[in-house]
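hey so i finally got around to running the thing on that chain from the lab meeting. sorry it took forever, my laptop kept dying and i had to restart like 3 times. anyway pasting the input first so we r on the same page abt which one it is
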Amino acid sequence: VCNKCSWALTNNSMPKLALANNLWIRIVPHKLVILTLPEQLLISCYFPWCYVFKLYPKGHRAPNPDYLPQGMTGNDSLYNMNTDMVVKMLDGQLLPHLAMSLASVITVTYVGTKKLPKTRLKSTFQVQHCIMYEVLMWLKSHNEIYKDIAISDEHLASLPEDDVLIEILSII
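ok and heres what got predicted. didnt touch it at all, straight out
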């Protein structure tokens, strides 16, 4: 038990971050678990941080992109955000966001001598517009934050059926 929780319990009060304070997340629905990070960001109402991916072939002498599934790593990095684009993303209740907005909150770096094949990125960065539509409809009926959003058919139609966004490929 941390000091703050111990102090609260000693003083006969509920710790601020106790699960009993309605902080229990419960089981995350499968519809949400299967979303890739770009899909999550395109339907998010809030953007608490930026994501930096550093990809390299791990455990192999030759930096061969075929080994990327075993060598994807992440690290915390800070970089300048395109705050104008973030403000535009947050303006209004129209979802999903436009794919071009992802360049403001995600970056991918590949360390290697060979060109990175697009197929190696699909499991992490693919976007499926049908899945996103289903999830947005589910969120509208099951999540108070999403109840008043408008789903943009135009934005959905601009997304790939099942592929990596050009906007992500262009920032690698």
